[in-house]
């Protein structure tokens, strides 16, 4: 089943074209890695799909789960199961982490016509997930990401994903800044998300993550276009050879 279909997507930041004709098709159950040099437009692509402000789509179309994604508001996208993790997660010191998790879950349930989750059931579920992610319960009662280390923010991001069970998860450099143990835990979290009818997009610079979370497809984004796609061996090739030959061949 087709989950996401991007056709000739162009997007600007201000007057500047950043995405310049993206085509990408994701079936339910697939994991797609997006790699590419700094400044290629990887984060922009994730943010445009997530419906963040500050981008203007100038051409192209995006179908998500049978809907015109670009017609949906940011909130509608989230409740429709498209969740965006952040390369640089926001800090909201005044809001407790656990409160935000519960609000997000209840918003999603409300969109499905369900009542708020029972507090006891919610606490049980969240405690299990904090354990899975190797986090202390104290994190739940701190401000959202407030003073969290880079690795703690990334664990928190996967915890959110495991709780909310998105249909399509966009993870932007979830592996950056992680030590080896945290990388393993985060990878295991992503692998738990994987499968069924879920789609996962992993933006990463490193093969290391992809040895734990093996992608079905690897795409190289460069200057706002996907210039090459392949299977996991493409990431291994990049690791061994760097980008230059591929960029040269594409230009
Ligand atoms: P990547 O994630 O692949 O490193 P980005 O999507 O962050 O790339 O950036 C793509 C291009 O868009 C870069 O040239 C970057 O400088 C530019 N860009 C990103 N954000 C802004 C912004 N807020 N204003 C102007 N240019 C931006
Ligand atoms: Mg970057
Ligand atoms: Mg980026």
Protein model, in words:
The protein is of the alpha/beta class. The chain has one domain (2-250): P-loop containing nucleotide triphosphate hydrolases (Rossmann fold). Helices cover 38% and strands 29% of the residues. It is built from 9 helices and 12 strands. The chain has helices at 42-50, 74-79, 97-111, 119-132, 150-164, 180-193, 207-212, 232-241, 244-250, and strands spanning 2-13, 16-27, 31-35, 56-64, 67-68, 82-84, 92-96, 143-144, 168-172, 199-203, 217-222, 225-230. Strands 6-9-10-3-11-12 form a 6-stranded mixed β-sheet, sandwiched between helices. A 4-stranded antiparallel β-sheet has the order 2-1-4-5, with helices on one face. A two-stranded antiparallel ribbon has the order 7-8. Helix 5 packs parallel to helix 6 (180-193). The protein binds adenosine-5'-diphosphate and magnesium ion (2 copies). Keywords: ATP-binding, Nucleotide-binding. This is FeS assembly ATPase SufC. Belongs to the ABC transporter superfamily. Ycf16 family. GO terms for molecular function: ATP binding; ATP hydrolysis activity. Residues 4-248 form the ABC transporter domain.
